[in-house]
Amino acid sequence: MAPRRAAVLRGEDDGRSLREHLIATAEHLIADRGTAGLTVRAIAREAGVADGVLYNHFADKEELLANALYRYVRSVERGLGPLPEPGVGTVEAGLRVHLAYGLALHRAILPAFTGLLAQPVVLARFAELRDHGEHWRDKLLGYLRAERESGRLAADAQVDAAAAMLVGVCHETVLSALLPSGTASGAPAVESVVTAVLNGIS
């Protein structure tokens, strides 16, 4: 006989488990309220379960938050659409899309990460959930390396440095406004950043 579903999930048609329900609830809270001050009690109340139920499905609060953060980031990434394929269009157009994607991604997810700076265990477990190559910066670097290999960039193009510069623009633009006493520096135009990078590697 199949086990009875938790009362909070009875009548639901998606067939998800209580563990999945808790992760989805925490993900929703992260998207709606951020991570600062997010407690087990708040997650449990939103999920419609007793506080202690979480510990039947997770080793600790950190495991739940790491999984919810991972799902939140993946959800944001899906909403940003596809990244350009190497060899399609111009390299300049491809980098513009990559940089616009990176800026939008960082604006959406960095506030959630800053709310967890005092919880390094959560961030470490989040990092363990992500596969190599899954990060936007890995995809950007892969794109630049492929364009170099195809001859559309110079054979000695310093693509690792170029990728670091583009990622740095995203970090500086968002973090300058998030950190204490920070002021928004204003992102340089995507076109001007891409032009500056390409002048060094094309």
Explain what you see.
With 202 residues, the chain is mainly α. The chain folds into 2 domains: 15-79, Tetracycline Repressor, domain 2 (Orthogonal Bundle); 84-202, Orthogonal Bundle (Tetracycline Repressor, domain 2), CATH 1.10.357. The chain is 61% helix and 0% strand. The protein is built from 8 helices and no strands. Helix 1 (18-33) crosses helix 2.
Give average pLDDT, whole number. 86
Number of strands: 0
Distance N terminus to C terminus?
65 Å
Q: Please count the helical segments.
A: 8
Give the helix/strand layout.
Elements: H1 18-33, H2 40-47, H3 61-79, H4 91-114, H5 120-129, H6 136-149, H7 159-178, H8 190-201
Helix pairs in contact: 1-2, 1-3, 3-4, 3-5, 4-6, 4-7, 4-8, 6-7, 7-8
Protein traits:
single chain; mainly alpha; Tetracycline Repressor, domain 2; 8 helices; elongated; disordered N terminus; HTH-type transcriptional repressor KstR2; DNA-binding
What is the gist of this entry?
The protein has eight helices and no strands.
